[in-house]
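name: query_chain
kind: protein
chains: 1
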Amino acid sequence: MILSTKKSGFSLLTSLLLLAALTVVGLAIMRSGILSEKQSANVQEKSVTFHSAQSANNATIESYRYDQTILAQAVTLSPNATLDTCLDEKGKVTMNCTTPTSIDKSGGILLAQTKTEYKECLKAQKCTGNSSGLFSDNTIGCNVFEHDGEGWLDKDGDAALDADETASQIDQWSLLISACS
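structure:
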């Protein structure tokens, strides 16, 4: 009988060790899965904010097609001053950035804005693909703009970028062929 209880005790100990080993392996796999899920969420957030910043820049660059005053205001600013523009929920550029609306149409948390700085107006012969006014005193030229787009997930809803919110910035340049002032 004593021999039998020793065998069952050994079997119990072996079973407990096997169970402990499986628990450790299971916890390691679960921890790895949670880490992968967090990394995936971070990549997704960064991708979304990158595309919102790119959308803000592109919308500002293309705004002259429906509202010539937006980029014209950047030209009239003093040197090194920036023009702030934001996107609304319809993808339209607005200059009201004090209370920006989300661009994801669902009252969400995705915000985007662009700071545009007018740099200079190059003579027409320096414009890529443009020979208008070559070797003349024509006022046609390339207005050069720098756009700093920013997109972020406004988790706390205060319309301001905070340290704990995911954000992306994009620096982009554009040319607008028009009269130099």
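note: Strands lie at 83-87, 93-94, 110-123, 140-153, 167-179.
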